[in-house]
Amino acid sequence: MPTVGVEDLKDGDFLLDVREDDEWKAGHAEGALHIPISDFVARYGELTEAAPQDGRVHVICRSGGRSAQVTMYLAQQGIDAVNVDGGMQHWSAVGRPVVTDDGQPGFVL
């Protein structure tokens, strides 16, 4: 499975957060697209509209398990997707910003 470390992500990389609504509301990476794994197949079109045409989709969840499932699914669809190793827990642990919908500091649930 293609994997990338949080440290390797650059500003502007396309990030897909597949955590559930309560996790997202507690805190997320600014600019990420949120499609919960429980809604992913039904909302797949939102991803294809938002994702860069020839770019990579970086998939993140809390720790890496759910995002790994979505990464495998996307790869089967021919999309260049990678799993973000360690998920939002690692994102927060290395000091990357976690925000709420109104831009306030958030936390990883």
UniProtKB/TrEMBL annotation:
Location of the Rhodanese domain: 9-100
InterPro entries registered for this protein in UniProt: GlpE_sulfurtransferase, Rhodanese-like_dom, Rhodanese-like_dom_sf
Gene3D superfamilies from the UniProt entry: Rhodanese-like domain
The protein's name: Rhodanese-like domain-containing protein
Species in which this protein is naturally found: Streptomyces galilaeus
